[in-house]
Design goal:
The structure is a homotetramer of 396-residue chains. With 396 residues, chain A is an alpha/beta fold. Chain A is built from 11 helices and 17 strands. In chain A, the strands form 3 sheets. In chain A, strands 16-15-14-13-7-12-11-8-17 form a 9-stranded mixed β-sheet. In chain A, strands 3-2-1-4-5-6 form a 6-stranded parallel β-sheet, with helices on both faces. In chain A, strands 9-10 form a two-stranded antiparallel ribbon. In chain A, helix 1 crosses helix 9, helix 5 packs antiparallel against helix 10 and helix 8 packs across helix 10. The longest helix of chain A is centred in the last third of the chain and has 20 residues. The first copy, chain A, is globular. The interface between B and C is large, with 45 and 45 residues. Chains A, B, C, D: Pfam families: GFO_IDH_MocA, GFO_IDH_MocA_C3. Chains A, B, C, D: This is Gfo/Idh/MocA family oxidoreductase. Chains A, B, C, D: Keywords: NAD, Oxidoreductase.
């Protein structure tokens, strides 16, 4: 078990989640593939950085993310900044030979994503994009069932990601509502997670047909705070334009013939982190809802007529990643555990000299899908989705 | 309370449901608007008709549905036959001045539906199409909330109708898989119910963009039996072509600016009568699932932050139609009660000389939407939906 | 298929439910074991009786229930009156050789129940007590699984019956709160249903240990109306004493060694008809909730570790009574269907010259359990439950 | 923010949970009340201890727990051993002036617990017993509603703790099935959590009436491994006697007049960590199920008749402890977060020089209740529960 030094850029919500993961990963997965050492954290200024170091248990702090890139003792760069900084940091880190984990979406556009993908390919390092939800044990269990053929050939997929934190027209104009920072709205922020799960569970997208809607065209300007996420209310002050989508709705034709639909909105009162998918196959069905994330619903056609129905499989030791989690089912996992598992698989790839999914190829592919969704909504028409050569070759 | 004589054409599953409704309606709703008298039932031959009369409590039976039309003592004609007979019977009944209730879908196409609609308009009789699900008390409660403004302006609608009775490739080639009898597959059979609820709750459709899929292209020929509904298994015998859709998926733009998606399939293992809708408004959300039909889920934005969440409102005496149902909430209603309520509202319109919704205008409108969905799937493009003048005028 | 004439005594909530059952039974179960003819209905006065006859489809009406007993053309007497009249009517009907179905609880006490039981034993007629909930298909499916050994030996049972219609201290003092009419409160009114299901699914009770609580000691006097069931609110007027229990809680030792608990209250806000049971066996578990009455939850220990969990079996054609209900699962049943099935089994016993469960022996046994629960609560101690000889002999 | 050095005794399942809490607490709650420093961990031998130190991030390790007591630099002793060691360690730590957090149950009996309670009272240190489940945000929210009077006066409480990890007769005879180590079975292991929540939410117990059952009298001897928790299967080898309960069922009379029932079993197939409670009050009801731990169900009587029902309140930033958890509701918490919150409140009490609940008085009180439950089951009678003077005085 080697120690690997991590430089984390960004001490917000994601910085917290990743710090937790580095600390807890060996506690959960033992023997660990490697021991992540919280070496240096970067924040906007010295004070914030020093505070973040103490809070998140880092040995050093800096206000200059480039010093992390330049530090030869650092093995891993973790990018947990707003989206518009991803590309510059990742490309620099790749050139410096660091292994990279980058928050999703990979970047604002397919073009930016391609540049990042090209950089990591050239560098030969381990790279990962943090679509953590596919590491929820119940989602990994769905993958296992599908791969075992337990639900037969997949016919269709319907996914949703519904939240309500921006339903209030007075929630502030955070960077998440600004195209120049975020790239897109609900699409890049949350729909990408569902797109990632659709690719993971069903396969590559062939074409999409989409509607993008902006329900609340102006929001109060945000004063202070990095990312209010709707928990601060604006007031009577000036408002700024929202130039991203509040909701995305798309139909999908998959390369393997399956069909699907995906919907994501941050304006759904009463839905909090309602990431769901339902998959029908020729031999069974699967349903997942992250709000009840420990559970996977599965129905097997092969069950007898008088006892067939959705089974509520409560994930635990007998299921994917179970050896590292809690010893009794239903002690239950939270958001943190998805990040702990993610960290495990990332460090395992580094330790073993392999690769991990989803990586920058996947992040780039998701960006291509996002671009196609935007184009489709603009043209009111089906738009084909190109597939990154490496992924197409993998026959995914 | 007048007695009104009913002639029922068709003694299958729907004949049973309607007979129950006529018998039970005054038991539930008292004083009743009128007393339905089960006067005559028509079936394919004399023996079947006589048996149906005894089973369903009709005074007379016939193997010739035209004798019902010709009988001046009959006030109401009830059409519960396969779809291809609807138009001929309804037009004849309208010309004979009978009030008409017709099972859904109104007919196989918009063209057929228009002829029926024209006939009843000319005849000045009371007409109804049996989209019974909108009469589920919880659905009517959703309508009430929306009309009261309790969830604000409607932003979107997502509906599903998922069943599994035809998921088995060996379920027989009933008339429901044959275009010449059924007109379409999951679209006409089940999606129409969701389309009806979408129109009822949100408003008219402006355009659609759809995928139709046929997953099982051949099924065993059915020998005997009117409508096996998947409960009989075929065998090694000869197979015939399925020329209708197993699944329909559509996106919708509503005339009032809301967006939506609808999916219907009869190949979803584990889903039985999974008619659901979720509606997000600017002030709240609503969710309904017919499999738990007594309940409506509603979230009000106006609830305090520390106590907001979906309320499970269990319908009963305090909710729509509650005065006629059971005196304690959660005694619970079944499919039959939706038909009892439907009969109540139909006879009330007759007794009061008014009209009722959904009527043939609604049935025709649904057929126009179905036609647009088919066209959209064929063209791989958005297709506009024309609106029946009467409905457009009503500003619905 | 013989016609059998029914005389129904009582035109309230239960009269409605039974009338529906007689009308609908042959519609659902065909060929029917016999055709119930709605011959005569008795109510408190001539006007009420005549109105009930028209509403519920009876040929004749009377204000004197004894005329039903005396009418030789009547085959079946149906007792749907308040509890204090059950014994007198049933004993008279038995002596007149009528088959009898009596609403639950059989009577106010074990003593009254014994007199009724003795009368029907002597008369040799078919008798039934209307614990309809055990005829919910999902409950019958639980019974089937247990009898097949699918969950192994039963270890324990926990049942509830929670309602909220009397939680409001201003709901009126209906007969259900008066000991002299009702015998007991939540115990006789609703707990008896759970006791019946416990006996049906697990076996005879050996001893009980109970708490009876009266939370609301006075309620407004009711003026007019037979049985307000909490839907009418009292006001500032005079109040009368409640001398029955609002809640009963009991532990149970079953004769076969299993243990259990039962709780019933009509003061549980948010619970409507929350009849639940959970049963753990050595090979699996079962859970049922009447508020979602179409579903049975079952977990089989024999399922593989990575796919074990409660299955939600949605009852329909493949389950008990399915041949008579709706042709598609999840069209769904309501309270009425439990009564239709009950009527079917009762008339089947008459037609075949057999007997049916639960009958007056079961009703008497339940009354003995009720008496033991009352005694236990008074003594603050475990009290043994005697078992009716016939049932003990049946080795139930 | 002071650093406080922790000595942790026990590196099993609980050691992991507590280590996570110490590492993550400042990440979640910032500014933290104090920074826990993982100073020394003790395990059964040097190798195990060294490995635990590396895994859980401790600076030092030892095979002698007394060296932790003797180390003046250690501020806090954390007892995460099997139950029979709690008393000796806690008393020694108290005498050494360490603050103490001890896993539940406090000890094997009331007598042992009293000795521990006396020791910490004399020492004047901060002490806590780790009934973590009451720190689930949804449970704390229930407490808040009750204290605000939002559900009125509490009438009753029904709690369960159902697991299935010992349902298999071949799961090994871990220390949890041996009275001399564990004290009791399901009672001490899991029922105590529900007892703690009942005391927290309703108040002190006045008397109990209980059944204890042992369903599986012998289990395979365990060879190696500290605490198999049912995940290892025994085989054909020799078996040993189980001398503790598999299931406990009790009725409760609370000092304030409310009544209740509690059931706990580790033999309930399909239930994993099914910690539930339902509370009915004069103005509303509450339901909680740990398997869906982010949610609290609450029904307010004051809601309008046509929109009343259980609300599913999804806990997040607007609810107890929300400021320290994740910024979006439904990111969701797992078992770890309950421990992180527990650590927060414990260190807060140390930092502020106050006290925390549940502490050793509560742990002792729970032991007294356990003893009364055992006595009640032995005597088949109600048994009164004495209340620790300090708690009685607090008028709890």
């Amino acid at each position: 078990m080697k120690n690997l030094n991590v430089g984390l850029i960004g001490g917000g919500f994601m910085g917290k989640a990743h710090s937790l993961a580095y600390s807890a990963m060996p506690m959960f997965f033992w023997p660990a593939p490697a021991i992540p050492v919280r070496h240096t954290i970067a924040e906007a200024n010295e004070n914030l950085a020093a505070e973040a170091a103490r809070r998140f248990g880092f040995e050093n702090s800096t206000s200059d993310w480039r010093s992390i890139i330049d530090d030869p003792s650092i093995d891993v760069v973790d990018i947990a900044t707003p989206n518009h900084l991803h590309a510059e940091i990742a490309i620099a880190a790749a050139r410096a030979g660091k292994h990279i984990i980058c928050e999703k979406p990979l970047a604002r556009t397919g073009e930016e994503s391609k540049a990042m993908y090209d950089a990591v390919k050239d560098a030969g390092i381990v790279h990962m994009v943090a679509f953590n939800y596919r590491r929820t044990p119940a989602v990994a269990l769905a993958k296992k069932y599908i791969e075992e053929g337990a639900i037969g050939r997949v016919l269709n997929f319907r996914g949703t990601y519904l939240q309500d934190w921006s339903a209030d027209p007075n929630s502030p104009l955070s960077w998440r509502f600004q195209k120049k920072v975020a790239g897109s709205g609900a699409l890049g922020d949350i729909a990408t997670h569902v797109i990632d799960m659709a690719r993971y569970l069903v396969g590559e997208f062939a074409s999409v047909n989409s509607i993008l809607s902006t329900f609340i065209p102006e929001r109060p300007l945000q004063t202070g705070g990095a990312d209010a996420l709707g928990n601060v209310r604006g007031g009577e002050g000036p408002r700024g334009e929202v130039d991203v989508d509040d909701e995305v709705m798309t139909m999908v034709r998959f390369a393997n013939g399956a069909v699907g639909s995906i919907e994501a909105t941050r304006n759904a009162y009463g839905r909090n982190n309602f990431i769901t998918f339902e998959i029908h196959g020729t031999e069974g069905s699967i349903f997942f809802n992250y709000e009840r994330r420990d559970e996977l619903q599965v129905c097997f056609a092969s069950d007898g007529n008088d006892r067939r129905g959705f089974r509520t499989v409560y994930t635990g030791p007998a299921h994917p990643y179970g050896e590292g989690l809690w010893p009794i089912p239903a002690l239950g996992i939270g958001y943190g555990e998805t990040k702990i598992i993610e960290a495990h698989d990332f460090f395992k790839a580094i330790a073993e000299g392999g690769s991990v999914s989803p990586n920058f190829a996947d992040g780039y592919q998701t960006a291509l899908i996002d671009d196609a969704i935007v184009a489709s909504a603009e043209k009111n028409a089906w738009v084909d989705v190109p597939v990154v050569a490496e992924l197409a070759a993998a026959g995914k």
